[in-house]
Amino acid sequence: MTQQHTPPDGLVIVDKPSGFTSHDVVAKMRGIARTRRVGHAGTLDPMATGVLVLGVERATKLLGHLALTEKEYVGTVRLGQNTVTDDAEGEIISSTDASEVTRDLIDAGIAKLTGDILQVPSKVSAIKINGVRSYKRARDGEDFEIPARPVTVSSFALYDVREAVAEDGTPVLDLLVSVVCSSGTYIRALARDLGADLGVGGHLTALRRTRVGPYKLESARTLDQLQEELTVMPVAEAAVAAFPRWDLDAKRVRLLANGVRLEMPDLYAGRGPVAVFGPEGEFVALVEAQKGKARSLAVFG
Fold first, then answer.
1. Residues 87, 90: Cα–Cα separation, whole Å
2. In DSSP terms, which residues pair with 203 in a beta bridge?
3. 120 with 76, same domain?
4. Domain encompassing residue 254
5. How confident is residue 129, by pLDDT bands cut at 50, 70 and 90?
6. Domains of the chain: total
7. Which residues are part of the catalytic machinery?
8. CATH number reported for the structural domain that contains residue 279 in this entry
9. Which residues participate directly in catalysis (predicted)?
10. CATH number at residue 32
């Protein structure tokens, strides 16, 4: 991570505060970095905290590809109550005594939600249904269904079970969990579905994202810290951290820049975006293998 005082050009790993939307953080970063060209690689709900990857200037071209990487979270699931939003931000719509739910039943429920699963996102998510955001349809009182989508939960671990009593007097269980999952997985939907499977309802009360692809919480900075000292990961460093590297000589760099679809080594087949570097170590482009040839995704050189 390097510090730059001129208009920055790279990734900023933010530790998002609770209560901020991802767009709020982008707006704040536009002021800190003094540029309009800022975007994020995948949203975090307002309630959630933790890793939010922002791109500034040329790094915005990396964001769509970074958004598809694996995510990691720690959070708290409350068994015994359903909410309208599947998290603590929404109104409680049902309460059920969860004190009889055993650890074995919880473990079995978690196992069903691990691996390749079909998940129905929350109705107040940003999923688009026929071009309209789901949360807008829900706010307008529409009756609609969101189709289930395939997601991968590669790890769903339970660390602790704590007995508690909700504000309305209902005995509930608070589960401390960690989740590693594919892009597009909703942790609050996991909480909802676990509660439904156990017959007592469930929702998410706390969530912290600890990793997006290779970018971890240890390298994240709060907005206050970034206001004091803007810490930027250069585009080339960000690309090396996130994607396989392919080094080319000057001649092939020129051919690639002129639109020639170079032959790619077999080792890059099926690996998604590949970062291309020139002979001086300069980051040239992001490409992917298509029928053995390099197809340009974004050019940086």
1. 6
2. 78
3. yes
4. 243-299
5. low
6. 3
7. 45
8. 2.30.130.10
9. 45 (nucleophile)
10. 3.30.2350.10
User: Is residue 35 domain-shared with residue 89, that is, in the same domain?
Assistant: no
Q: What is the pLDDT of residues 260-292, one digit of tens each?
A: 899 999 998 888 899 999 999 999 999 999 989
Q: Residue 147 is encoded by which pair of tokens? A: 């189709």
- The amino acid that residue 253 corresponds to is V
76 and 202 assigned to the same domain? yes
- The mean pLDDT value for 142-161 works out to 89
| Helices first, then strands: H and E counts in the chain | 8, 19
pLDDT at residue 154, rounded to an integer: 97
What span, in angstroms and rounded, lies between the C-alpha atoms of 182 and 68?
8
Residues 150 and 260 in one domain: no
CA distance 167 to 296: 55
Q: State the chain's mean pLDDT as an integer.
A: 90
Distance, CA of 28 to CA of 99 (rounded, Å): 44
DSSP-assigned letter for residue 267: G
79-112 pLDDT, tens per residue?
A: 999 998 899 988 999 999 999 999 999 999 999 9
Asked if 242 and 15 touch (Cβ cutoff 8 Å), the reply is: no
